[in-house]
Amino acid sequence: MLAVYKKELRSYFIGPIGYIYVASFLMVSALVFIYTNLYSGTTDITNYYALLLYLFVVLIPLLTMRMLSEEKKSKTEQILLTSPVSLSSIIAAKFFAAFTLFGGTLLLSCVQFSALYYGDSSPNLAIVVSTTFGILLIGSAFVAIGIFVSACTENQLISALLTMVAIAITLVMSILSGYITFTPLRAVVRWLSIFDRFYAFTYGYFDFAALIYYLSITVVFLFLTVRVFEKRRWE
Fold first, then answer.
1. Sign of torsion over alpha carbons 169, 148, 212, 97
2. What is the DSSP letter of 39?
3. What does the radius of gyration of the chain's CA atoms come to, in whole angstroms?
4. Cβ of 89: how many Cβ atoms within 10 Å?
């Protein structure tokens, strides 16, 4: 598993994808930070992360669009299907490689928060840590969704577009719930909403239920990815 993890992480920087992702993430996050904090003169990073979440609709597919669709297109997926390493370990290694790049870039972007500590007021460190942790959890769920979509098609563009749609749907559930008049359905939509579960972290609270929810999404989509390949193995 470790060898696959290193190979996948290295592959991001053999080609341009890794550099494009890191550069795009840091540039976009810097612009969002300037707009939501420096320009507005506030130390509250809630709006910064809320807006950044919507930008993940475009950023996350950059990480996952080629991860398994490329294997299928180049016919190297046969190596995966016949490898002595279990499919679960291979998929997990690919996930951790993508998540490492996502998490590392996110944490690197947090350096800009230091600019908020030079004014008359400074952000609450507990809120900064808990909010960043919440974003990492959401990112893990989005990466898992993207890997699953990538396993279902050999076209990278289709993989990216479908991942964008899937992530966008999870983000707009909170908005849609406000237009649903049927109470039971509204409750279900709000329960599924990624945004609603994120709010606790923005107040500096560690929400254990949200932790389980985000990890469950991650595990479920990775499990479904493994099932996709197991199905192909027997075809």
1. negative
2. T
3. 19
4. 15
**pLDDT for residue 73 is more than 80:** no
Q: How many CB atoms lie within 10 A of CB 229?
A: 19
Distance from the Cα of residue 155 to its chain's centroid = 20
Burial class (CB in 10 A: 0-12, 13-18, 19+), 151: buried
User: Dihedral of the CA atoms 117, 123, 127, 128 (nearest 10)?
Assistant: -30
**Cα separation of 123 and 18, whole Å?**
31
Domain ranges across the chain: 2-233
According to the model, what pLDDT value does residue 144 have? 95
Cβ atoms within 10 Å, residue 102: 24
- The reported pLDDT for the residue numbered 230 is 77
Tokens of 201: 């972290």
Contact 1, 92 (CB under 8 A): yes
- Strands of the chain, DSSP E: none
> Which pair of structure tokens corresponds to residue 195?
């945004």
pLDDT tens digit sequence for 175-193: 777 677 767 777 777 777 7
What is the distance between the alpha carbons of residues 24 and 38, in angstroms, rounded to a whole number? 20
> Which pLDDT does position 80 carry in this prediction?
60
> Which two structure tokens, joined as six digits, stand for 227?
């099932």
Assign 24 a pLDDT band (cuts: 50, 70, 90): very high
DSSP string of 90-119? HHHHHHHHHHHHHHHHHHHHGGGGGGGGGS
